[in-house]
Amino acid sequence: MKILVTGAAGYIGSHTCRLLIESGHQVVGYDNLSRGHHMAFERAAAGSLFVEGDLLDTSLLGQIMRDEAIQAVFHFAAFGLVGESVEHPQLYYHNNVEGSVSLLKAMQQAGISRLVVSSTTAIYGEPETMPISEEMHPAPINPYGQSKWDVECLLQEARDRDGLGFAALRYFNAAGAAADGMLGEDHDPETHLIPIVLQVALGQREKIQIFGNDYPTPDGTCVRDYVHVCDLAAAHLKALNLLEPGTGIQINLGSGVGTSVLEIVEHARRVTGHEIPAEFAARRSGDPPLLVANNSQANSILGWTPEYSGLNSILTSAWQWHRRHPQGYKTS
Ligand code: UDP
Predict the structure, then answer these.
(1) Residues 6 or more apart in contact with residue 200 via CB below 8 angstroms
(2) Per-residue pLDDT reduced to its tens digit, 105-124
(3) Domain residue spans in the chain?
(4) Does domain 193-225+256-293+307-330 have CATH number 3.90.25.10?
(5) Which of 54, 161, 211, 266 qualifies as a cystine partner to 284, CB 3.0-4.6 A?
(6) Prediction pTM value
């Protein structure tokens, strides 16, 4: 199939482009490069068409869909930082929600009815029971989560109105890097836990600050469900094969295992052999204490089981990427 990938130069987008091509699909990359890296797309999909463009440019999107005879869309292009969304909520509504409206409009005009979209665990807010299943009603507690839930609602409307076939994949904490060390996580500024911990191990930062040690969790630090980026990519392919016009699936993608911030730091010390100094700091606004997936629907509906999401595989692959690319994609 020929697939338009928005956010193709980003972290999860680039890993998915590579897998799509390895699986015999054709890819057209679309990214405004505000946060992505052209090099990531080049490495993932060398020789494929890349268009630098903004999601809000509906006519450019439509033109590419028609000119390239696109059959399905994978939509990764979005901002995804909880802390930033609390400080700048309008950025999130603009880019994530209005951007998706523009994409849906272009798809509808071009007659494309297959769409796989990145969603997030942040739509659930602070659920009272763990693990989180898809039946729990979304109740976001930060603008990032709200923007993604708004997008899912738009998808449901487009399904009912225009016969869209969609899969909204609710990622837990994406982590890790490609096995060959050629693709990985590169954000500027970096705010995610694992890359920051590894930057400390590389000597690029003095210490890791652990945001909050008085949460109602076993060791007082936040618990998250880390899922390998290659497992996420694999789930997108499985979702593509299930897309049916007029139907929508909304599915959690997590490992089903919760890991605390302290456990990540301790495990990273073992993987890297570095001391990784750490200190406790104030809670970060918008952080729920505990987020762990019930991934049984991913298994029963998509036929997906995480293969690489063990902590060791995540940290080892991420460490290989960061060691080889201390300046991210700027490292030649
Ligand atoms: N975290 C931390 N120190 C950091 C960065 C993150 O203690 O320098 C914590 C953060 O508060 C959260 C967890 O690590 O509980 C995962 O944060 P991350 O930003 O990686 O992902 P998020 O869960 O926000 O999507």
Answers:
(1) 206, 207, 208, 274, 276, 277
(2) 999 999 999 999 999 999 99
(3) 2-173+227-253, 193-225+256-293+307-330
(4) yes
(5) 211
(6) 0.97
